[in-house]
Amino acid sequence: MAEHGILGKSTVYPSQYDASLLFPIARNIAREQIGVYSPLPFTGQDIWNAYELSWLDKAGRPRSGLAEIVVPANTVNIIESKSFKLYLNSFNQTRIGDSERLRQMLVSDISKACGGNVTVTITPASASHAFPVEYLNGEVIDDMEVDINYYGPPEPLYLSVFEESQVSESLICHIFRSNCPVTNQPDWASIQIRYLGNRIEREGLLRYLVSYRMHNGFHENCVEHIFTDIMRQCKPLQLSVYARFTRRGGLDINPYRCTEGMGMPGNVRLIRQ
After folding, report:
1. Which residues, other chains included, contact 225 with Cβ-Cβ below 8 Å and sequence gap of 6+?
2. DSSP letter, residue 56
3. Does residue 48 contact residue 71 with C-beta atoms inside 8 Å?
């Protein structure tokens, strides 16, 4: 078949289960680039949702479900998302006793690749009503009257605060874009920033988030970059950054980073997910 310009090249999908397809990437590579070392200045987790999970039962009948994979931020590695998709697809023609056996296999394989303990929950596709569309609480800053003409690399000097005006608030940005460092394809997300401290200047925050628009970075790295820049420039007493990325290849990745004591978020499915 003739090639068609920008159309993607054919990918060979595995016909049987293969855990070796998972491709780990050390977290410390990107962290060192932004000056983050151990002990980490944050805690958190990455919530992966897999919408195209399918396998065969003992009788050879196809089964399908949704998987939620929670990876702690202190694991050694992240998993490159295309390798994750290929790995999940390797179950498609594999006979597995039941969903609990599949869950155990996922926990074992992903924990080994990440270098830490992950949790996995599988929900049957017939129970998809358990995942209603929700929203992030906070004030949306997307429609502020501000001129923007800079789109990267990320510029932390846009960030500033109003002194002597301590607040506790949640700010939302639905227009965040970064780019995959492997494919250069755009990644879209809604970002929730919650903090306690001097009031962050919102026009500068919006300019800062838009400055990721031409930036290449994995989802997890972008959230840690945002967290680190806000902590350094604005010095809040408490801070959390939660990104809900739109799905690609049947997966969405939703990193969350926070200061100690703020707790972990729910797996809030947004309308674009």
Report:
1. 30, 34, 154, 217
2. E
3. yes
Q: Which amino acid is at 133?
A: V
Residue 22's identity, in one-letter code, is L
Give the Cα separation of 151 and 211 in Å (integer). Answer: 4
Conformational region of residue 249, where left means phi above 0, alpha means psi within -120 to 50, and beta covers everything else: left
Residues recognised as catalytic = 180, 187
- Structural domains of the chain, ranges and CATH numbers in brackets: 19-130 (3.30.1130.10), 139-258 (3.30.1130.10)
Record the tokens describing residue 163, joined without a space.
């002194």
pLDDT in tens, 76-103: 999 999 999 999 999 999 999 899 999 9
Q: Which tokens go with 86? A: 């290929």
pLDDT digits (tens, 9 = 90+) for 192-227: 999 999 999 999 999 999 999 999 999 999 999 999
